[in-house]
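Hey, I was hoping to borrow your eyes for a little while. No rush at all, and the record is pasted right below.
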Amino acid sequence: MKRQLLAIGLAGLSTTAFAQSSVTLYGVIDEGVQYLNNVKQVVNGKTVGGSQIGLDSVSGPWGSRWGVKGAEDLGGGWKAIFTLESGMNLNNGALAQGGTMFGRQAFVGITQDRLGTITLGRQYDSVSDMSAAFGPQTAWGTSAGHPGDIDNMIRSYRFNNTIKYTSPNLAGFTLNATGTLGGVAGDFSQSSAYTFGVLYSRNALVAGAAYEFVKNPSNVGAPLNSNANAAPPATTGAYSPLNSGYLAGAHPAGSWQDIVAGAAYTFDRFAIGANYSNVRYGNIGNLNGASAVFNTIEVNGKVQFNPAWFLGLVYSYTKGNSVVGDLGNQHFNQFGFLVNDTLSKRTDIYFEGIYQIASGTNSLGGQARANIDSLGESSSNHQLFVRLALRHKF
């Protein structure tokens, strides 16, 4: 009997040694004091503006979050992996991403060094994955996203019900593709999406491009309306006048297309980058099937003065083309800076500022107003955002 128990125990030890696994708790706390002028308010039916000072842990360049990720060695170079990641508001304990429990990422998959990685769940798209190397993040983080993050270059949108493949590095090239299943009975293509991208990285140069297409983008559960608080397009208040005329209402856009391309180069203590995006809202029923287009160009740079601190600078120009008459003819000029001081491997303190000027006519036919990142529409055609904050990683 004792020998049998010993044999069982040794077999258990052998299995444990073979199937090694790991689970990691991680996160970022990005908390700061920020100032924002011309904050939009509606008083007695009229739009007015005022200045605002407060604590914020959601609007910073990195965004507060916590997550759990794990991997199990399956043998032969194969691993099972998973990630569950939740955004949070440090000041009131609320969930970010519209109250979605794991609103940032939630997926499981399998990976092999020579063959690549396949994952399934709520994930980032190819634009988000590829543009991280040359987009606004190149200068520092994500606060300097393009107006309303219309091109998703700072990951405002996550894709539910998605299958993703990412290749290993192939002579400097990495390939990426996703397929989103709409899950609508009787209509396989409704609310579906596909994306693909390529990134090249060699020494000091990184360059890439990505494309994505979404059908019925603002349907409940579709990529542009995928959070737990999603409401039907006819009643949603999730979009600002920048693009609500295209995504909201009884007959919103039937498709959304996004193309991005860019490059970044690092030399000595300097890094420079540039990118371009083209966004098209197609077959807008509210506008008799017309299409609306936004084009954005950006240049950014970074100076690493010493190992501890750096300065990031960014400028972008966004142009919305006219759809009907002057409707949709919008222009946005945005300037930003960030000074970051690294106190330790896990802790930084930073100071950033963004200024945006808007002109033209928005998607609802009104005056175009400033719309910085995820802060919403301003009460005016210009807005200033300033933030002093502490970032801690764990």
In short: The helical segments are 2-18, 126-131, 244-247.
